């Protein structure tokens, strides 16, 4: 039969439920035959209960705490239990989700910023292209109009010379009365001071007062051009004339006429 002394260390572990099952069976068999060990076990269980209640109730006797700690110290190191509280993985799930959303939001913000910049650049290029096309179309229309005025037999052509018939300045007016389109080209005109300007006049067939048809200044070679001044469509022209006026122009011609010519 097992001796009483060999179970002294096992009683403390058995009291707190930490004795392995293989050894607990042997101890329980001994307890059925040993009254002293049963008394020691009851005392150890009482001590453990007092320690468990020490946080909420009065302090247990010092002897109970000392006896239990001494028994635990005698326990082999390999049999001691290490308890710790680890946070479950789902405790950090909200933080991980928030971090992922923040990173994804930053990515979307950068992509949106790049797209808006590319869209602005494309709109700017498109506007520049539209402006270039508009200028090209305007220049093309102007060139077609000039060619039409120079070559069309439907255009009235009037040659203007000095009243004295001298070989000085000259000009030519090409006029489409139904549209009110006029192209006038002059050559060999004398230069003028900045306070003066040449002004073209249309003499209506109806006998009304001369109509201003645009002002102009000659270049270094004496050449000048006036194209499509504001003339009401359907105005029939009897003659054209050029005068020198005070800048920026006059509502009535000032004599003498520098150039003058009647319609054909």
Share of residues in strands: 15-25%
Number of helices: 5
Radius of gyration from the CA trace? 59 Å
Give the N-to-C terminal Cα separation: 155 Å
Strand order of the largest sheet: 1-2-3-6
**Average pLDDT rating:** 82
Computed structural class: alpha+beta
Helix content: 40-55%
Number of strands: 8
Shape: rod-shaped
The major pleated sheet works out as: 4 strands, antiparallel
Low-confidence stretches: 77-85
String of helices and strands: HHHHHEEEEEEEE
SSE inventory with pairings:
Layout: H1 8-15, H2 21-31, H3 35-52, H4 62-73, H5 93-151, E1 156-161, E2 170-176, E3 181-187, E4 196-204, E5 211-216, E6 224-227, E7 237-246, E8 259-262
Antiparallel strand pairs: 1-2, 2-3, 3-6, 4-5, 4-7, 7-8
Helix pairs in contact: 1-3, 3-4
């Amino acid at each position: 039969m097992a001796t009483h002394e060999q179970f002294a260390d096992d009683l403390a572990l058995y009291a707190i439920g930490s004795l392995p099952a293989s050894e607990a069976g042997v101890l329980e068999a001994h307890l059925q035959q040993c009254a002293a060990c049963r008394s020691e076990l009851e005392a150890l269980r009482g001590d453990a209960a007092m320690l468990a209640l020490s946080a909420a109730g009065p302090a247990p006797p010092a002897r109970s705490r000392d006896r239990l700690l001494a028994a635990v110290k005698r326990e082999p190191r390999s049999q001691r239990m290490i308890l710790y509280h680890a946070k479950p993985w789902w405790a950090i799930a909200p933080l991980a989700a928030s971090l992922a959303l923040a990173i994804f939001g930053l990515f979307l913000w950068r992509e949106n910023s790049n797209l808006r910049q590319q869209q602005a650049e494309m709109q700017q290029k498109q506007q520049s292209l539209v402006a270039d096309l508009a200028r090209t179309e305007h220049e093309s229309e102007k060139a077609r109009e000039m060619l039409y005025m120079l070559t069309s037999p439907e255009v009235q052509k009037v040659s203007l010379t000095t009243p004295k018939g001298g070989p000085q300045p000259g000009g030519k007016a090409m006029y489409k009365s139904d549209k009110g389109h006029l192209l006038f080209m002059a050559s060999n005109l004398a230069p003028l001071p900045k306070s003066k300007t040449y002004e073209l006049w249309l003499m209506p067939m109806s006998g009304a007062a001369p109509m201003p048809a645009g002002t102009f200044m000659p270049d270094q070679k004496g050449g000048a051009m006036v194209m499509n001044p504001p003339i009401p469509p359907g105005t029939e022209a009897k003659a054209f004339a050029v005068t020198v006026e005070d800048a920026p122009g006059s509502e009535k011609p000032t004599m003498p006429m520098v150039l003058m010519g009647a319609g054909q």
